[in-house]
Amino acid sequence: DAGVIQSPRHEVTEMGQEVTLRCKPISGHNSLFWYRQTMMRGLELLIYFNNNVPIDDSGMPEDRFSAKMPNASFSTLKIQPSEPRDSAVYFCASSLGGDHQETQYFGPGTRLLVL
Amino acid sequence: GQQVMQIPQYQHVQEGEDFTTYCNSSTTLSNIQWYKQRPGGHPVFLIQLVKSGEVKKQKRLTFQFGEAKKNSSLHITATQTTDVGTYFCAGPTGGGNKLTFGTGTQLKVEL
How far is A108 from chain B (nearest CA, A)? Predict the structure, then answer.
């Protein structure tokens, strides 16, 4: 299995531009998670989906952030417009779901720099 | 809300010394998981503990789940440079499949 796939791996953009991060979870996994990691705030859960349905988006910082999961094999996290404080590593993770099946498998991350 | 704290935040050791990180949850957990993130890498699952008082070993790593299922520890015997990284504990919270990750302990091993 290829594991969780994220693209792009690195993104440098200018303030005000739209940024779209992509994730392909492990086949057969029912839950998908988007995290943001910074030195100051550590690993933060932004949003997660079960069976393609958003369950908890309380971690989404503000309306500039949105996430979609149109099917079981693809999800996007969009920032529009981007700001320098959005610079971070964004991880996507997936899990099987179910009792004691919460183990999460992380993708390699997207390193975002907003200038 | 649920909080999972880890101490210490940072630890520098000489190669060959032992290392321990402690994880404390504000609520009882059904299970506890440990992850390791190498510098520049992503968190990687190490192990899951489910039973009260459970102890599991992986080579030089020993994981323990507290009797009250609110705390856990990871002990590394005779650290090596390959142990460098940040160690996170995580527990399921709030229903569903969400995990709350601890604050992490960053380990540096010096020769």
Answer: 6
B104 touches chain A (CB under 8 A): yes
**pLDDT digits 0-9 by tens, B50-97:** 999 999 999 999 999 999 999 999 999 999 999 999 999 999 877 667
Please tell me whether residue A75 adopts helix, strand or coil conformation.
Answer: strand
Q: Does B47 touch chain A (CB under 8 A)?
A: no
Q: Which chain B residues are within 8 Å of A104, Cβ to Cβ?
A: 43, 45, 90, 99
| Digit-coded pLDDT (tens) for A60-108 | 988 999 999 999 999 999 999 999 999 999 999 999 976 666 789 999 9
Beta strands in B30-104 (DSSP E): 32-37, 44-49, 55-58, 61-65, 71-76, 85-92, 99-101
Q: Work out the mean pLDDT of chain A and round it to a whole number.
A: 94
Residue type, A40: M
Which residues of chain B are within 8 Å of residue A42 when distances are taken between CB atoms?
Answer: 101, 103-104
